[in-house]
Write a structure and sequence with these properties.
It is a single chain. This protein folds into 3 domains: 102 residues, Elongation Factor Tu (Ef-tu), domain 3; 100 residues, no CATH class; 108 residues, no CATH class. It is an alpha+beta fold.
């Protein structure tokens, strides 16, 4: 287990060729937004008090760097990547008369998500796995073609590599007829993944497919006051909220094992709240008796010169059950009609 002290940070800005500039030794303040939805993950990072020449290389009229890679860790472990993406905007500002900054906004897989297009057919008897791999391969080829000839498009290539991430086992039966895929890859991926009750996203450049009723098979990350848990987890309408010390081992789509008390959500006590109470109790926002939760969102926030160094999780219960009596008792039904005056 990591001792979780003496924090380490590596922030690299790099051109399409990949040879980067390390900025982690300076003060870096960052916030990443990462989830299991197909919209690209984002990162906002501020680097303080850069030399004017270095700031111009990052934020000039013709910026030299197009990619951002962020890694964090502690002194007793190597740094691990929590974000990789293409730089979308750079801003230069000043907090006061002493401290200037360069603010960088980046998106993960933004070009593949927004601009990759597809036009091909799959032969009869092709399997779902073949179709998924062909769609992901189209994203990869779009990126490779763009890197070779960026002038052919209305935008410049960042050089971020798109790869294949986790894809669950899919049915082996082949299609009874040929299939045509045409349009934007993101629309075709969403439609095809929905067909097999899955969802897709891009995680650090890797196209990942996760079953809507499952998770990525990997050892669950232990979460307790002894492994960095901050405060008490809170059950909300949108899932279980958990804050821990910065932990790059917690990945989207995988599971955590929570060993802690939980502050439970308060149900409404009127008749109108009964259907909503039933819906909440039957959904994945309920509490898992074994402490197993699926990581739906993992947002990292840090300051290499400040106190902020957290990972905020939004989790859903894995295979939890709730007795129906608990729901019926969470509403107050009037025993008699209230007489009129």
């Amino acid at each position: 287990m990591s001792q979780q002290y003496l924090r380490q940070c590596s922030l690299v800005v790099a051109p399409a060729s990949g040879q980067g500039l390390e900025l982690g030794a300076l003060r870096v303040v960052f916030q990443t937004n990462r989830g299991d939805i197909q919209t690209p993950n984002t990162c906002d990072a501020k680097v303080y008090n850069l030399a004017p020449a270095t700031a111009r290389r990052i934020a000039g009229k013709q910026p030299e760097f197009t990619q951002l890679i962020l890694k964090v860790g502690y002194s007793d472990q190597p740094v691990a990547q929590i974000f990789a993406g293409s730089i979308k905007q750079v801003r230069v500002g000043r907090e006061d008369q002493k401290n200037s900054y360069v603010a960088i906004t980046a998106a993960d897989g933004d070009e593949a998500y927004n601009f990759a297009s597809v036009a091909f057919t799959m032969a009869k008897n092709s399997t779902p796995a073949n179709a998924i791999q062909s769609l992901i391969g189209t994203m990869v080829r779009n990126q490779q073609a763009l890197a070779q000839s960026p002038s052919a498009a209305v935008f410049s290539s960042s050089g971020q590599q798109i790869t294949t991430g986790y894809v669950p086992p899919l049915p082996n039966n082949g299609s009874v007829r040929g299939q045509t895929f045409y349009g934007s890859v993101r629309d075709q991926m969403r439609w095809y993944c929905d067909t097999f009750d899955c969802k897709w996203s891009i995680q650090n450049g890797a196209v990942t497919v996760i079953p809507k009723t499952g998770y990525i098979p990997a050892p669950a990350v232990e979460i307790s006051p002894f492994t960095g848990l901050i405060g008490v987890p809170e059950q909300t309408q949108n899932g279980l909220k958990v804050r821990v010390l910065m932990n790059p081992a917690i990945l989207i789509g995988q599971t955590i094992k929570l060993n802690s008390d939980i502050n439970q959500y308060r149900y409404g006590l009127d008749n109108q709240s009964i259907p909503f109470n039933r819906q909440l109790a039957a959904s994945n926002v309920k509490i898992n008796p074994d402490g197993m939760y699926y990581v739906m969102r993992a947002e990292h926030s840090g300051d290499t010169r400040g106190t902020q160094w957290y990972t905020d999780l939004t989790c859903l219960a894995v295979d939890a059950t709730v007795p129906i009596n608990n729901v019926q008792q969470a509403a107050i039904t009037p025993s008699a009609a209230v007489p009129r005056y």
